[in-house]
Amino acid sequence: MGGLNPEEFRARLKEADANKDGKISKDEAPPLIKDRFDRIDSNSDGFIDDSEVKQMLDRMRDAGGKGPPGGKGPPGRKGGDEPRRPDADKN
Predict the structure, then answer these.
(1) How far apart are CA 45 and CA 15, in angstroms?
(2) By C-alpha distance, which of 40, 18, 15, 36 is closest to 27?
(3) DSSP secondary structure string, 13-74?
(4) pLDDT beneath 70: ranges in the chain
(5) Per CATH, is 6-62 categorized as 3.30.460.40?
(6) pLDDT for the residue numbered 77
(7) Residue closest to 77 by CA, chosen among 56, 89, 63
(8) 23-38 b/e with 16+ CB inside 10 Å = b?
(9) Is 12 helix (H, G, I), strand (E, B) or coil?
(10) d(CA 16, CA 14)
(11) Which of 6, 45, 59, 64 has the most C-beta neighbours closer than 10 Å?
């Protein structure tokens, strides 16, 4: 899931929603989310819903824009931003 923008991240979670009930159970959660499930499930109902996904993405944005869990790159660089080749702007 690393390197996804918020819309792509939400789409991947929607794909993981096996029973299409609009929320993710721990069993449905992808591995990177499963490892953080209890923290993301802020109301402790056993599911991650869209409002909790939004809260998680807002927290990550406020913490430095690292992107969804597993984002590429070192701290401080936005998740998914690939390093540019030094000669990328040269013709």
Answers:
(1) 21
(2) 18
(3) HHHH-TT-SSSEETTTS-HHHHTTHHHH-TT-SSEE-HHHHHHHHHHHHHTT---STT-SSS
(4) 1-3, 65-91
(5) no
(6) 46
(7) 63
(8) bbbeebbeeebeeeee
(9) helix
(10) 5
(11) 6
Domain ranges (residues) in the chain: 6-62
How far is 39 from 32, CA to CA, in rounded Å?
12
Nearest to 80 by CA among 67, 64, 90, 69: 67
Determine the Cα angle at 64 with ends 75 and 56, to 5°: 110
> In the block, which residue shows the tokens 């590429």?
72
Q: Minimal CA–CA distance to 23: which of 34, 14, 36?
A: 14
Return d(Cα 67, Cα 44) in angstroms, integer.
23
- Residue 79 · residue 4 · CB < 8 Å: yes
